[in-house]
Each structure stands twice: as C-alpha cells, then as structure tokens.
Design goal:
TIM Barrel; binds 1,3-dihydroxyacetonephosphate; 252 residues; 8 strands; 8-stranded parallel barrel; alpha/beta
C-alpha cells in the first residue's frame, strides 16, 4: 500500500547523548503527527539498538546501508538480516553518498535490494541526477536507469516492500531544493518507469529528499506523486523534524 513516510537519515552524525535527546523529543511529539504518517529514524548502524529501545515502538528504525552479501567473512559490513534482527523496518540502498564516495554501482544497489527483500525488510532505493546531468538534459534518463537497474531483482510479490527516494544530488546538503513542480514531474516519471516494469506503480511510495526543511515540506508534500520525504540535516533537530512530519495536507 502507498504509505506516507518521513524518514530521518542521520548520516554519520550522532552520539549516545543525541539519541537520548532527539529520539526522546521526537517520540514525545509523535502523537501530533498524522495517523497515516510513518516516522522513521535512520541512525548510524551502531546506534540502531539504542534508537529502537528509546523509540519504544513509537517510531520505526532503518539502516543506512547493508552488505550485498548474505553473511560471512566481510569485515566491517552488516547484513540485511542483522538489520532485521535489530528491529529495523527499512534499509536505504544506493544513497548518492554511497554511489559517489564508495563507488556503489547500479548492480551493487540491485544486489543490496535483493538482500533487503530476502530479509523481509523494506528497501528504499535512492536515485537522483547530478547537476551536470540535469544541465545536460539527462535527468530523467539517468533516474529511469537507476530505477530500472536497482529494482530489476524485485519479484512480483515483493513490490509492497519497495520505496523509491528521489534525491537530486545537487539538492543534498546544499540548501537548494527542487521546486515542488520539478520534483512532482520527476516523481511522475518514476511512476511511469515503475509502471513499465509491471510494478503496481500507484501503490509504491516515492519520497523526495534534498534540503527538505520545515518551511518547504508542505509545498512538496502537497504534490500528488510525492508521498513524503527523506530528510538529512533537518532530521537532526527534533522540532524541525516533527514539523516536517506534520506538513502533509489536511486529512493525512
Ligand atoms: P539534506 O536534507 O541534508 O539535504 O540530505 C538529504 C539526504 O541525503 C537524505 O538522505
């Protein structure tokens, strides 16, 4: 089913103290978030247990990354199964920072999606074009290819556990957000690509990420094909994050 989701990707930020303060504050206010909105916190893996414990079931947790392999001699890696074991509901796959800084290709992303789905979790495939690609008029083609390749491994009965996050690389951590119109246009394209893959495109949540803040979330979330957000910097401030979680149109 198409869900409204706001997920806070802490990236490599945080500490035991921050978990205590931030998750505590988010949970306190989680009752003020629409009943159909799922609030997800995605901390560094080492804090997943603490976040889950502190969250006490009021939030869902997610992992920022897992291995493309199932288990074994892969020092430094964590598996999708371990993420499930620690209570995660979601796993990010193919975040642009993984693609750019750690050389993750579409085929690695596909292998990770496969592992995540095998473990029964929801895979959030992150896609997005660079500024150079956008300026060259290639944004749609680049994103379409990332979606097609990354999700090429999804079986017919697994689509209910797939989420796509459109995060234009030029908007991440830059303070530049895609306009609601531009984001909507790309989300609609992504749904067309999903439809072309015989996926139930209208049932799949497509999130927007890239400099989402309390003051621009409502315009983005009002668009028909934007089902929520993947939030970086603003997810490290409880008030701001909760305010984003409350930015859906009335009735959600
Ligand atoms: P910012 O919200 O800091 O731009 O980060 C977006 C992001 O990369 C979330 O995954």
């Amino acid at each position: 089913m198409r869900r409204r989701i706001v997920a806070g990707n802490w990236k490599m930020n945080g500490s035991k103290d921050l978990v205590k303060q931030l998750v505590g504050a988010v949970c306190e206010q989680s009752g003020n978030v629409g009943k159909d909105v799922e609030v997800v916190i995605i901390p560094p893996a080492i804090y997943l247990g603490q976040v889950a414990e502190q969250g006490g079931g009021r939030i869902t947790t997610g992992a920022q990354n897992v291995s493309q392999w199932q288990s074994g001699a892969y020092t430094g890696e964590i598996s999708a199964e371990m993420a499930r074991d620690m209570g995660c509901g979601y796993v990010l796959v193919g975040h642009s920072e993984r693609r750019q800084l750690f050389g993750e290709t579409d085929s690695v992303a596909a292998a990770k999606v496969e592992q995540v789905l095998l473990s029964g979790l929801v895979a959030v495939l992150c896609v997005g074009e660079t500024l150079a690609e956008r300026e060259a008029g290639q944004a749609e083609a680049v994103v379409a290819e990332q979606v097609r390749s990354g999700l090429s491994v999804v079986a017919d009965d697994q689509w209910s556990r797939v989420v796509v996050a459109y995060e234009p690389v030029w908007a991440i951590g830059t303070g530049k957000t895609a306009t609601a119109d531009d984001a909507q246009a790309m989300h609609s394209e992504i749904r067309k690509v999903l439809d072309g893959m015989n996926a139930p495109a209208n049932e799949i949540s497509v999130l927007y990420g890239g400099s989402v803040k309390a003051d621009n979330a409502a315009a983005l979330f009002a668009e028909p094909d934007i089902d929520g957000g993947l939030i970086g910097g603003a997810s490290l401030k409880a008030e701001e994050f909760i305010s984003i979680c409350r930015s859906f149109p009335a009735g959600v």
